[in-house]
Design brief:
Blueprint: E1 5-10, E2 28-29, E3 32-33, H1 34-43, E4 48-55, E5 73-77, H2 82-93, E6 102-105, H3 115-128, E7 132-137, E8 142-145, E9 151-155, E10 161-170, H4 171-183, H5 191-197, E11 203-206, H6 217-235
Helix pairs in contact: 2-4, 4-5
């Protein structure tokens, strides 16, 4: 593979929807912090040359994360919004990256990612040459509602997908897209949105339902079950 692949993990958020005393990436699952699970999976992927963890500059809890001591891991300071943090991570990689390099952006609180899924996404994206997002097809009937919570329209769920991470793009293109979106003060909720708004093509690769993001308290229980099952499969 002529180009290198990097990873950025934005971990500067507070996780307010979790309503916990600590940011969700530091919540414990089976005695291990969520962020540790996430970093272990990324570091176990042989295709990833290095990764940047983007942290709140005042964050001291990160000192307890063993994987941050790995020589392939860099740290960068986070910003006010996700797009600021991811851009900071890209800029930390820039001195070491080439113009054809790729970057995977992965949520810190999405700990159930597997090496096999990472390699599937990497192979698919490099072969196609198009930035790709893991996503899950919608299985629910979806409604558009007005401000007073009245249904105004039922949407065709066949064309609706729920974006996951990692999301993989050419590093220079993503840096350009995020810089442009921030300059225009656009509300960016994930990296693919910035790429779309800048006119770059974005493809979908179906991801598993097990690749959950820990956002609400119930998600923590699901993550515990999934990670325990993964550990049992690795041990067998």
């Amino acid at each position: 593979m002529s180009s290198s692949i990097w990873a950025v993990v934005p971990a500067a958020g507070s996780g307010s929807r979790m309503a916990a005393e600590v940011p969700k990436q530091y919540l414990m699952v089976n005695g291990i912090p969520i962020l540790e699970y996430t970093l272990r999976a990324l570091l176990a992927c042989p295709d990833i040359r290095g990764l940047v963890v983007v942290l709140d500059p005042s964050d001291r809890r990160a000192d307890s994360i063993d994987s941050l001591a790995d020589p392939r891991v860099f740290r960068a300071a986070g910003g006010n919004e996700r797009a600021d943090s991811v851009l900071s991570g890209l800029q930390a990689i820039a001195p070491y990256a080439g113009p054809d390099d790729w970057v995977l952006v992965h949520d810190a609180a999405r700990p159930c990612i597997t090496v096999s899924l990472l390699r599937e996404l990497i192979d698919h994206t490099v072969e196609s040459g198009i930035g790709t997002v893991l996503a899950q097809a919608s299985t629910d009937t979806l409604k558009r509602v007005s401000s007073n919570l009245r249904v105004s329209e039922s949407l065709d769920r066949r064309v609706i997908w729920r974006a996951q991470t990692p999301q993989m793009f050419r590093l220079p293109e993503l840096e350009t897209a995020l810089s442009s979106a921030l300059s225009d003060e656009l509300p960016i909720t994930d990296e693919s949105m910035a790429m779309e708004l800048s006119g770059f093509p974005v493809a979908i690769l179906e991801g598993p339902s097990s690749n959950i993001k820990v956002t609400l308290p119930i998600d923590l229980a699901f993550a515990e079950i999934i990670l325990q099952r993964m550990a049992e499969e690795d041990a067998s």
